[in-house]
Prior knowledge:
By secondary structure, the protein is an all-alpha fold. It has helices spanning 2-30, 35-188.
Amino acid sequence: EVALTSQKLSSLQMELDRNQHESRQGESRQGEGQSRQGEGQQLAKRYTERLRSLTEEIRELKKRHKEYAHLEKLNMERGREVERLQSQISEMRCAKAVLQKKSSDESAHFRRWNAMRERQISQLRREARRQAAAHHKLQQAHERQNQVLRRRTEEVTAVQRRLRETDPARRMRSGVRSAADGSVSEEVG
Length: 189
């Protein structure tokens, strides 16, 4: 569009220059004859009118050319801005891909760690249950041993009590016997 306007502007400028040149030639020919004077005035008027029209058109075209140049400059700036934004979008996409990969890796790592931890917890729970069962078994065995010990202690105590109760009677009997044995041995001696 700017190139077209520029081309039209230069063609109009050339036409304006040609018309100005012809106008000057027409004025110089005016002096040649009176008969041509009316014709020359008409021609001059027509050229003047055409010059004014061309000048106005050139001014308008220059104004449009300036606007087009400004718009083209803005368009180039916007193009650079679009390129910059597209570059940023590309960088963001790359960063997003990197973050997604990192997130995926961390997620997989966490899943592996969590599975391992769950296995360890499960193993520790099994071990705790096994130890609790063994402890319970030991407690029961200990309790049985204590009961057996208590029974035997009670039995021993009962036997000792009977022995003590029967012991004085036996002593007395054995004392009588020993006294009898002593007198017998005295007699023998």
